[in-house]
C-alpha cells in the first residue's frame, strides 16, 4: 500500500467543501437555537438530535480549519485538528444510531420508559467511546498528517503508521460500516410497525366518526423514516469508497470528483439534519416563518417612521394618525 504521495487538494475543492462546512455549521446551530428558544419542542428525540448537532457542529468547524489549511506535514495544530474531527465524527455516528435505537424502542416496543432510560447509556457510549479512542490514538502518536489519502486537506490517522488501517477502522470506519447496517434495519422495522398500525386503525375508521384522517403529518414522517438512512449512506459512502481504494492502492482515490464528493459528504451532516428536522418539520418551519415575517414587519415600520419624521411641515397629529394606521395590519 503506497503511503507516500500527497493527494492534491485544488482551490475549487477547498471552496466547495468550505461552503459545505458553513452550511453544516449554520444548520447545526439552527437546530440548537430552535431547541433553546421554544421550550415546548424539547422532547427527548429532539434532545438527542441536539447532541448529534453539537457533534456535527464541532465536526464542521474542525473540518473547515483542516480544509482551509490543507496540511502538508505534521504539526501541533494538525494533531489537534485531527483529534477534534476524529472525536466529533465518531460521536456523530454513535448519536445517529442512538436516535434510531430510541425511536425503535419507543415506537416498535411501545415503551417510553425503557427508551428514556437509554438516554444515559447513549451519553456514555456516544461521548465516552469516541473520547477514549481519540485520546488513545493521540497518546500512541497515531493522529497526524495523512497526505489527504482518505481526507480532503484535514489530518486524521498518520499515513506512515504501520498499523494505519487498524486505526482508521477504530477511529471511524468500523463505526461507519456498522451504521450502514444498523440504520436501514431499524428504520425499516419502524416503518413496518407504523404501516401495520395504520392498517389496523383503518378497519375501525367507519365506526370512529366521519372526520377524515389527515395524511400530511404521517406522510411526512414516513418520508423522513425513508430518507434518514438513505441520506446518511449517500453522504458517507464517498469516504468509504476512498478508504477501500486506499486498501487496494488504487490511484482513483485521488480523482478530484471523488475527493470533492468525499469532502461534501463528510461535512454536510449538520445541514442535512437541519433540512430534515427543521425546514421539513411543519411546526418549527411555521414558527421560523412567523419570526422572520415579524422581524421584517418591524424593520419596515421603523423605516417608514424614520422617513415620515424627515418630512418637513408635517404636524404631530398627522404623524400620530399615520403611525396608528400603519400599526393596524400588524395587530391583526
UniProtKB/TrEMBL annotation:
Keywords: Membrane, Receptor, Transmembrane, Transmembrane helix
Presence of keyword Transmembrane helix: yes
Main subcellular localisation: membrane
Protein's membrane topology: Multi-pass membrane protein
PROSITE patterns: G_PROTEIN_RECEP_F1_2, G_PROTEIN_RECEP_F2_4
Region of interest called Disordered, as start-end residue ranges on this chain: 306-332
Domain of life: Eukaryota
Signal peptide: none
GO cellular component: plasma membrane
UniProt record, GO biological process: adenylate cyclase-activating G protein-coupled receptor signaling pathway; cell surface receptor signaling pathway
Biased composition (Basic and acidic residues): 318-332
The G-protein coupled receptors family 2 profile domain, residue ranges: 13-170
GO molecular function terms listed in the Swiss-Prot or TrEMBL record: cAMP binding; G protein-coupled receptor activity
Record field: transmembrane: 15-36, 48-71, 83-106, 118-145, 165-190, 225-245, 257-280
Domain (G-protein coupled receptors family 1 profile): residue spans on this chain: 27-190
Localization in the cell: Membrane
UniProt-recorded name of the protein: G-protein coupled receptor 157
Organism of derivation: Parambassis ranga (Indian glassy fish)
Lineage: Eukaryota, Metazoa, Chordata, Craniata, Vertebrata
